[in-house]
Amino acid sequence: MKVAVVGAGIVGASVAFRLAQDENIEVVVIDRDQPGNGTTSTSFAWLNANRKTPREYYEFNLAGMREHLGLPEELGEAPWLNPGGNLMWTTDEKELEELERRVRRLMSWGYRAEWRKAGEINKSLEPHVAFPTPETPVAYFPEEAWVDAPRLAKEFIRLAEKHGAETRFDAAVESAGIRDGRVATLRLERGENIPVDAVVNAAGPEADRVASMFGPPLPLARISGLLLRLAVSDEPISRLMHTHAANIRPDGVGSVLVHHDSIDQRLQRGEDEEALCAELLDRAQKLLPVLEDAEISGSSVGIRPVPEDGFSCVGSVSALPGYYEAVTHSGVTLGPLIGRLLAKEIVSGEVASLATPFSPDRFNRNIRL
Ligand SMILES: Cc1cc2nc3c(=O)[nH]c(=O)nc-3n(C[C@H](O)[C@H](O)[C@H](O)COP(=O)(O)OP(=O)(O)OC[C@H]3O[C@@H](n4cnc5c(N)ncnc54)[C@H](O)[C@@H]3O)c2cc1C
Fold first, then answer.
1. Which of 159, 223, 283, 341 could cross-link 245 (Cys pair, CB 3.0–4.6 Å)?
2. pLDDT by residue (tens digit) across 305-334?
């Protein structure tokens, strides 16, 4: 059986690796760019199930976290995984009430969460943060982490190739051929025709365009987000932080990454990107005065692939045998899990109970061919 995976972001790369581990499957991974250069390279990459509801979606993301945490043992090392937890606090009363409710819910679901005082965090974890007062309540989620997602995507591709997968990079898929009601070929822009038995659409924010080559329309929203990268001489922080003003995390040696949903909303309303970057810098410097001399080393706008109802779209599309989708927001958290579950579905036809609520068949998938 020959399976083509369209897209070598964290999701497609993970699917390709898990499929290639099966010696009865021939895998070809195709990307119009290089692995990990899509949304995977412009992500805050926070590994979490923190704000995920309802329960089924929370469980899916929790399993996504566990999948990441199992990779170091399976692969021998995981230099892309950055544990250390996440801190959350806010000066906004309504947001604080919401955070308190969320922590209660997460604790009742068995998620690791605890309350600390800001003064204690300054002493034991993050000396440079300027909290409103030493008494400010801070929620601490010790199992959350951030991931160097492009690095992990590249590693999955390396492992897939080691297991025999073929690759076509800098090669866009342009159209698909259907024969006898099944997926049969893919045509690349550069002219190559690839005969296939099955295709996985893991094209991230382009997944609806790839879906239209096959027929079943995929309702997808593209939601942009602004990331600001600051050059720092020291390591001013050791873990993720989410606050009323800015979300900040380390980004490898000499760098921190800043993001905030309120800025993203304004970006989507068309506000000037440069002015928003300056505002993010100012907000970050107020939270971390040691960033006073930090310089902007880069900024990027990432496009979140969000299926219409906000949830993942993972599995076979029953209207078109041989056609599968792996499209999701929170793809950094979910990518490795989706890879394993979808590969199993393709090989055995077995759909994991964790994934059934996220079947692509929940959308109206009448073929338009
Ligand atoms: C600002 C921002 C913050 C985020 N924060 C988080 C977070 O904290 N935690 C989290 O878990 N997730 C987060 N996400 C979401 C997460 O980054 C994405 O869900 C994930 O990266 C999607 O990965 P992907 O592999 O599906 O897509 P991509 O990485 O975009 O990969 C798709 C690939 O398909 C290729 N492609 C497209 N069309 C074609 C074609 N016709 N032919 C061949 N190849 C094609 C592209 O070149 C690309 O490489 C965030 C996203 C953004 C933008």
1. 283
2. 999 999 999 999 999 999 999 999 999 999
Q: CA 10 → CA 37, 151, 364, distances in Å?
A: 10, 9, 27
Confidence (pLDDT) at 231: 97
* Res 234: pLDDT: 84
* Ligand 1 midpoint to CA 126 (Å): 31
Which of 248, 272, 276, 241 has its CA nearest to residue 262? 276
70 C-alpha to center of ligand 1: Å? 22
The overall average pLDDT reported for the chain is 97
Query: Among 304, 311, 328, 333, which is best to mutate for testing ligand 1, by the most ligand atoms less than 8 A from CB?
Result: 304
Q: Calculate how far, in angstroms, residue 25's C-alpha sits from the geometric centre of ligand 1.
A: 25
Q: How buried is 205 (Cβ within 10 angstroms: 0-12 exposed, 13-18 middle, 19+ buried)?
A: buried
Kindly indicate the confidence band of residue 75, based on its pLDDT and cuts at 50, 70 and 90.
very high
| Contact predicate 226/280, CB 8 Å | yes
The model carries a pTM of 0.97
39 ligand 1 Cβ < 6 A: yes
Q: How large is the average pLDDT for residues 243-270?
A: 97
Residue 8 has φ and ψ, to the nearest 5°, of: -115, 45
Give the residue carrying structure tokens 């090989």.
347
Nearest CA to ligand 1 atom 5: 44
Q: Check if 355 has its Cβ closer than 6 Å to any atom of ligand 1.
A: no
For ligand 1, the distance from its centroid to the CA atom of residue 6, given in whole angstroms, is 12
In the block, which residue shows the tokens 């947001």? 95
pLDDT at 156: 98
Percentage of the chain modeled with pLDDT above 70: 99
Query: Given this model, what pLDDT does residue 369 score?
Result: 46
CA angle 243, 249, 254 (to 5 degrees): 140
Residue to mutate (ligand 1; options 14, 33, 39, 241; most atoms within 8 A of CB) = 39
**222-305: CATH architecture:** 2-Layer Sandwich (3.30)
Q: Is the CB of 315 under 6 A from ligand 1?
A: no
